Amino acid sequence: MRRLITFMLLALCLHASADEQVFYQPLNRDAQLSQAQWRTLWKATRAQGGKTLIVQWTAYSDSEFGGADGWLAKSLRSAHEQGLQLVLGLYMDAAYYQRINEVDSAGLSAYWKVLLKRSLSQQRSVSQDWKLPVAGWYLPMELDDLHFQDPLRRQALFTQLQNFNHRLDAPLHISTFSAGHLSPGANAKWLEELAGLKIQVWWQDGAGTGRLPLLVREQYLAALPCAIGIVREAFRQTSREGQPFTAVAAPPASDKGCHPTAVFSLRYRPWAQGLLTLSGN
């Protein structure tokens, strides 16, 4: 009986820590992996409990990673062959975080319109040319409570995302993080409104970046409704503000509560070491 109880507890622990949904952030240097290495990586991801791969983007500024016949598309076909569902990221502007710091409310709204138009174009390209089975689409532009602290900005964003979502053929995913500019309750209400558009909204737990103290992060987490997914950051940032981003791998926080969970990112997980290089994300 003791052995049975021990086995059941171990199984529950393994299930709780499994990377069922894991983010992968494509970088051009990943092109050096062979198809055999990609297969090894995806098999290991499945063995660790992986079910869904959330790909952060399929176009990054001028880079499309070779397009339909490029290394990224081939690696993702391999991922699907190994049993992983694919949530595919759309277009990301490399200057996104700089631009949203520079523009006023009207400029931010106009800028988002341009980005969403580029993402729709990318969605059509991936759907028609890459020929991958898509379980969902991911919008790479992260939302935070500094740049969307103003209710008018949040309303403008709501309208744009509503129109954008209606033009997609699979569920939309988007991620957010907290910088302490909205209260936990106000932040939860905002994210719940976005989720009401039938969008899978993800909230980054902030453990890797450490922008907010642990007790504050826990207050934000506790306020979130169950529909909001939690992104467990599996890294610890080593760079300071204003420096190029660097980080080291670290165990993600354990699953808590009723939320869907995902891990950021594959690059920091033990079975990816030696295949995906660590510098940057």
Task: List the SSEs and their pairings.
Layout: H1 2-17, E1 21-24, H2 35-47, E2 52-55, E3 59-60, H3 71-81, E4 85-89, E5 91-92, H4 96-102, H5 105-130, E6 136-144, H6 151-165, E7 172-177, H7 184-195, E8 199-204, H8 214-223, E9 229-233, E10 235-237, E11 247-249, E12 261-264
Parallel strand pairs: 1-2, 2-4, 3-5, 4-6, 6-7, 7-8, 8-9, 9-12
Antiparallel strand pairs: 10-11
Description:
The chain contains 8 helices and 12 strands. 39% of the residues lie in helices and 19% in strands. An 8-stranded parallel β-sheet has the order 1-2-4-6-7-8-9-12. Strands 3-5 form a two-stranded parallel sheet. A two-stranded antiparallel sheet has the order 10-11. Helix 7 links the parallel strand 7 (172-177) and strand 8. With 281 residues, the chain is an alpha/beta fold. The relative contact order is 0.13. Mean pLDDT is 92; it is low at 1-16. The protein is globular. Helix 2 (35-47) crosses helix 3.
